[in-house]
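Q: What structure does this chain adopt?
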Amino acid sequence: MQKNKIYPLLGLLPLVLLITGFLILPLINMVFQSFQSSDGTFGVTQYISIFGDAFYLQAIKSSLTISLISATVAIIIAAIGGYSISRLASRANKVMVMITNMTSYFEGIPLAFSFIILLGNNGLFTLLFSQIGLDVFNEFNLYSWIGLIVVYIYFQIPFAIMLLLPTYQGLKADWRHASNLLGGSQFSYWRYVGIPILFPGIVGTYTILFANSLGAYATAYALVGSTYNLLPLQIGSLIAGDVFLQPNLASALGVVLATIMMIALWINGRIMRKVRRDLK
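A:
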């Protein structure tokens, strides 16, 4: 093999070792442990325990519900916000992109604590509005199901905007001008040009948001602890709990979680192939 081909491969070696050591091998080990019972025998005992127990089925259902709701609301807000940012002047656009990029990394435990400080039972805004006689947050409970969804939506929006901005930049002004010259209205432009161009990016971003919220652990744990039955929280309690440790069952739940994500990616791929065929 020529030297000019060997050097690039050697440069990729650290990345290959990193992916193998921290992604592929743990994944293989997780699948292996999921088929292993507590006495060392192999079988589908762990999966029978999961799908035969209403508690774990509720965890799967709750995780799917919060992921679907948060991803749907976030993608709608991000689609509007991302388009608005893309239409700003150059300097304002750079400022908004910088702010959005910074907030897209603000999640996990710091985000949960920030919401607790601002909107908790004794939070800044809760007490402030109560003192001035406005009962805005009297019926709002941050530590409830609605509060958890609000926090999920918050950290999904800037992340979605950053993913959608390159898609909006793909809309060329010449296409709008050509549509106007041919007598097309704003509705016809978006119906036949804008939406078909943006749709693949929006669907792909929605899939990423769904997977991102489905696997979120730190935010939910810091906000509600074990109060709500979510799949990531159950996996964490089975491998780091104070009472019962069941790593094999946690591995099986992890495989279920990964399978749901792969199904979502498969559906996204099917939609993308259909959309691309329709655009040809």
